[in-house]
């Protein structure tokens, strides 16, 4: 019997139930839920649970997601899979799982349990603890008794009975009370008697699946007196420069200079995943709603919507001739004529889902999930170079001023590639978590990471020249500004403009207004455009410093 609060007992009961379903249906190769809400947050555990409950094969999804975009894509597919299975999923959304909204998730799971259980919990239910005792073996059927042929009896002559006088009817004897039946023991050995539970409420379900009644906490023992250690304390370790930087107090958000957006563009039905500047100037945005929208930033109107992808639009880039290129989680790359809105070409690039960068000669660089960086011709779709060296999936690519390619990976490193030979020029190692985004400002490489930091690198030497600390969550996008500063967007819902004139990047301005993760930033004239998982695009004036 588990102890803890009502919420803890509820989660324990749900976890037991879904783990039993996973085992009974042999789903997940032995996968078991341990922390219910966290284990569903990347979409993998949720897909397995839905597969076990429905008996249907789920759609193809990323079984080892590390980036936020990969996790959200899994969750989007899982919620749609639940709807396709006929489960009630109209009031649950992918962000409920990614944000680990315990109240919303557990409420929906209880609805799911009632929907999929059928009559299992609509009648008295004998629950055998499958986690401790084996289920009872069925009793053997009784053997039929051999039939005995009836013996013939001799016929007797009937004699007429003498006529008797009528006698008064005797009184009927009262029936004797039947002996009380003794309850038989449980039909399995070394186990408690099964409890018959009428499952009509969540409390009944928790009692059946291992939830325990709330117990009063035991009084904590009094702490023992601390004995003084006669051994002298070791000498303090020398303080290094990096330690001083880590110990520097962080400036509170309320103390930072802040700016509000000048305009908000609304029109997407799902999270905005990427944004890029077109000629005009116009803006193009891609979204989890599978659409690409072309915006007039001056009027705030959507000029046209480009449809064609069947899954999330992950990346948008512009070729030197002005054509727009989009990559999607449907494993396709499309080339669009922006003026007509027509798709000119479609290529199947299974591993080029989200990470593209245009080269000056009109070719494209793309990163792949199988650790490769490819240079290919958008006119034919054929690979011109395939460069290997990363030890994990490539998560971002950019093109340097020299024409060489720089890539970031989930192996935490960046690599600079010689575009002529296809060989690694240098490996940049400093991030402590996977690299999520990369850009270039002249001869400087800029990278963001899940370690919440932005780093600037000297492209000639590969050394870190600046580290910008301040974000409270993953850095998802970076871009250089015309005034010589840098802007970054993060999962902490803020954009930050950084002073990179010293080797310790400081926040010069906090751009506040988005309600969720900021997935992309770009600039035009003296304006910053940011796209967010709150489905909106916001425009900010670039200040003069």
Could you walk me through the main structural features you see in this protein, from its secondary elements to its overall organization?
With 545 residues, the protein is α+β, with helices and mostly antiparallel strands. Helices cover 16% and strands 31% of the residues. The protein is built from eight helices and 31 strands. The protein has helices spanning 6-24, 36-39, 44-54, 68-84, 94-98, 102-117, 202-208, 241-246; strands spanning 124-127, 195-198, 258-259, 263-266, 272-278, 282-287, 292-296, 301-306, 313-318, 324-328, 332-337, 342-348, 356-358, 364-367, 372-376, 383-388, 394-399, 405-409, 413-417, 424-429, 435-441, 444-449, 454-458, 464-468, 475-480, 486-490, 495-499, 504-511, 518-524, 527-532, 536-541. The strands form seven sheets. Strands 3, 21, 22, 23, 24, 25, 26, 27 and 28 form a nine-stranded mixed beta sheet that branches. A hairpin with a 3-residue loop joins strand 18 (405-409) and strand 19. Helix 1 crosses helix 3. The longest helix has 19 residues, at 6-24. The radius of gyration is 35 Å and the shape is globular. The two termini are 63 Å apart. The model is unreliable at 122-136, 185-198, 212-216 and 228-247 (pLDDT under 50).
